[in-house]
């Protein structure tokens, strides 16, 4: 089985603007730091409510990342594919939004 047969989405690529990529990477690095902070809090036996507060902040940061990336996806990939007659992208977008809303 070649790579395309294993995972149809792995073959897809999106060329991103350097500024968009930098902004998204910075968000992910901050989230990574927040998760490490959670690990440290747990290792140091921090108070449960404090850990949960930090966990909520991580969740909010992930949501902000997802909103930003989703907006870029709609303005770029989805708009391009619809213009090119690929309406299947609408179903893909619907699935993505449903996953994000869980």
Provide an overview of this structure.
This protein has 102 residues and is mostly helical. It has a single domain, classed as Metal-sensitive repressor, helix protomer (Methane Monooxygenase Hydroxylase, Chain G, domain 1), CATH 1.20.58. 77% of the residues lie in helices and 0% in strands. Helix 2 packs antiparallel against helix 3 and helix 3 runs antiparallel to helix 4. The protein is elongated. The two termini are 33 Å apart. The mean pLDDT is 92.
Give me the secondary-structure topology.
Elements: H1 3-6, H2 18-43, H3 48-83, H4 88-100
CATH class descriptor: Mainly Alpha
How many domain modules?
A: 1
Derived from helix and strand composition plus strand pairing, the structural class reads mainly alpha
- The run of helices and strands is HHHH
Q: Which fold name corresponds to the CATH topology?
A: Methane Monooxygenase Hydroxylase, Chain G, domain 1
Low-confidence stretches: none
Taking Cα atoms only, what radius of gyration do you get, to the nearest Å?
18 Å
N/C terminus separation:
33 Å
Characterize the biggest β-sheet: none
Topology, number of strands = 0
Individual helix count? 4
Provide the CATH superfamily.
Metal-sensitive repressor, helix protomer
Helical coverage, percent range:
over 70%
């Amino acid at each position: 089985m070649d790579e395309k047969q294993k995972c149809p989405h792995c073959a897809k690529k999106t060329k991103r603007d350097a500024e968009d990529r930098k902004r998204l990477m910075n968000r992910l690095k901050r989230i990574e730091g927040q998760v490490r902070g959670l690990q440290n809090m747990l290792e140091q036996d921090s108070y449960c409510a404090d850990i949960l507060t930090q966990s909520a902040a991580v969740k909010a940061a992930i949501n902000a990342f997802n909103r930003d990336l989703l907006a870029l996806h709609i303005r770029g990939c989805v708009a391009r594919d619809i213009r090119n007659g690929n309406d299947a992208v609408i179903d893909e977008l619907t699935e993505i939004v449903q996953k994000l809303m869980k």
